[in-house]
Amino acid sequence: MADNGLPITVAIDAMGGDFAPQAVVEGAWRAVQEDGAHVILVGDQARIEEQLERVVGGRQPVDRRIAIEHAPEVIAMEEPASAVAKKRKSSIRVCARLVRKGRAHAMVTAGHTGAALIAAKTVIGAIPGVDRPALAGVFPTRQGRTVMLDVGANIDAKVTHFRQFAVMGHFYAQEVLGTASPRVGLMSVGEEEGKGTDTTREVFQALRQTGLNFVGNVEGRDLFRGTVDVIVCDGFVGNVVLKSSESLVGFVGSLLRREMARTPRTRLGASLAAPAFDRFQQLVDWSEYGAAPLLGVRGGCFVGHGRSGDKAIKNAIRRASEFCAANLHQKIEDKVAELHEQEALLRAENAPAAAAASTPEPDQRN
């Protein structure tokens, strides 16, 4: 339930994704039936109603926890993200508008990531002190879980944006992963301080000044080791890491299935180990996580894969509902504001000393 006692409601872009609207409607229906979710399906009303009728099968009336909001326009994947400004009746923009108006607490889309980012920032609004909202991906590790951001929202980022990513990742790890003092690392090509590009070297120095538990540079191999709890990078690097990891999981899974089916002995072993394989699959399957939260906006915004099926959509709705029930966007906003206040006080305290240091010594000559 939300703070006002009303049920958490999620607006879903029914037209976004490779398998929309069929997979989106099926996933929403599963979320309602399995989790008791309240959803608003946004998109072409006739097509949504057709899919709902197919899913329900005429056996029962459509659940009152499902509503439809007509949106006649769609942002296609090949269109520029800026199209969301012109297509004011697009499903992504209407989802964001529902959140801004308070009819929904969060939005979920498997459609155009760039359009979702622009709609969330311009329509829902960014948290004060956050210039670039960032997508946070959660990865399983030997030690538990690690959050990486950005994983695709900001292909290029400035030093100040990296700093904001670190702050939001820190608070997200505290609230979601339950880590009291998250270790923050900067993705680079080496652990040494001087490694990386000009930008990452500058970011390294900036993160030292945040007061966070910054432990320095980390490399790609540290992601699954659990060396740190938060990894900061730009959206280009983060998205490559995310999709490479998902591809590797699929490749390893296909190799295991092939080898386990090779002989009668391996097939017997596979049947005995089936429960362990099922747990492994659940741990590494991206559809179990559903979608990544866009941190830094005044409301919930979750962006999933374009190839999301009904399972991924259902879990994305679950994650969005949990995010809003915990009031995480407000907690992050409060923490960011608190950090800025502390930094402003520190600058004020240091100002006299800095001014004195910059004042030239009086000329003692006669």
CATH topology description of the largest domain: Isopropylmalate Dehydrogenase
Indicate the percent of residues in helices.
Answer: 40-55%
**Would you list the SSEs in sequence order as H and E?**
EHEHEHHEHEEHEHEEHHHHEEHH
Number of strands: 11
Give the total of domains: 2
Q: Please report the first level of CATH classification, the CATH class of the largest domain.
A: Alpha Beta
Q: Main beta sheet: strand number and arrangement?
A: 11 strands, mixed
**What is the level-2 CATH architecture name of the largest domain?**
3-Layer(aba) Sandwich
Radius of gyration: 23 Å
What's the N-to-C terminus distance? Answer: 78 Å
Q: Please, how many helices?
A: 13
Please list the strands of the largest sheet in the order they lie side by side. 3-2-1-4-11-10-5-6-9-7-8
Q: In the CATH hierarchy, what is the superfamily of the largest domain?
A: Isopropylmalate Dehydrogenase
Strand % is: 5-15%
Low-pLDDT parts are none
In one word, what is the shape?
globular
Mean pLDDT: 85
What structural class do helix, strand and pairing data support? alpha/beta
